[in-house]
Design a protein that fits this description.
mainly alpha, 10 helices
């Protein structure tokens, strides 16, 4: 009888162990399913966020295209000799450059516009400050040439800014070319410092010493 009782007790204990194990496995499966469902939901949320971001970007691009069209429409009036109420020439240049037009091409259009509407010269003269802020070195260089040829010499700060930008880009030969467009007595201490640094970088120590002595 005792042995039968032990057997029954063992069977009962084994049943309990199996039942507990089954419950644990069931909970583990449910947990994995929940995690899988959570991951799927997260993916859906990420896709939804991506769609929303694409919509926002598309909206921004649409607004930008509309603004660009308005800017070019105002520029078209200015080229015909009219004076639009709100002409931002820096924005006009920026839009033309975003269209892939070269600096020389943009400068050529500005030149033609000045032939028709000489009042635009004041707007062109204000461009160097904006171009310096945007670090548009190539565009700045041709605008300074245009102003000089139109009898509106740019201020020395614009030339100094161009030389500093060229130095940052390691365009050492261009630094010297820009300085050569100015009379020696017009070179400011800042310009001479830039010339000295540029000459030293090129290994032209005699030139560097000469600039220091000026």
């Amino acid at each position: 009888m005792a042995s039968i009782g032990l057997i029954v007790f063992g069977i009962a204990a084994l049943a309990v162990v199996l039942l507990v194990g089954a419950l644990l496995i069931l909970r583990l499966i449910e947990s994995e399913n929940l995690q899988a469902g959570s991951g799927s939901l997260s993916g859906e949320e990420e896709e939804k966020q991506s769609d929303q971001e694409r919509e926002r970007k598309s909206h921004r691009n649409g607004v930008q295209r509309e603004e660009d069209s308005e800017i070019l429409a105002a520029w078209s009036l200015a080229k015909r000799g009219q004076r639009p109420p709100q002409l931002d020439l820096a924005r006009v240049v920026d839009v033309m450059r975003k269209q892939g037009r070269s600096a020389m091409d943009v400068a050529s259009e500005l030149w033609s516009a000045l032939d028709v509407n000489s009042e635009l010269l004041a707007d062109v003269a204000a461009l160097p400050a904006a171009l310096l802020r945007d670090d548009a070195v190539e565009m700045l260089e041709v605008i300074l040439v245009l102003l000089d040829e139109r009898g509106q010499p740019p201020d020395l700060a614009s030339y100094a800014g161009l030389m500093a930008a060229q130095l940052r880009r390691r365009q050492y030969a261009d630094v010297a070319k820009t300085a050569a467009r100015l009379p020696g007595e017009a070179l400011t201490p800042r310009m001479l410092a830039i010339l000295t640094a540029s000459a030293a970088q090129r290994g032209h120590l005699d030139d560097a010493l000469g600039h220091l002595q000026q």
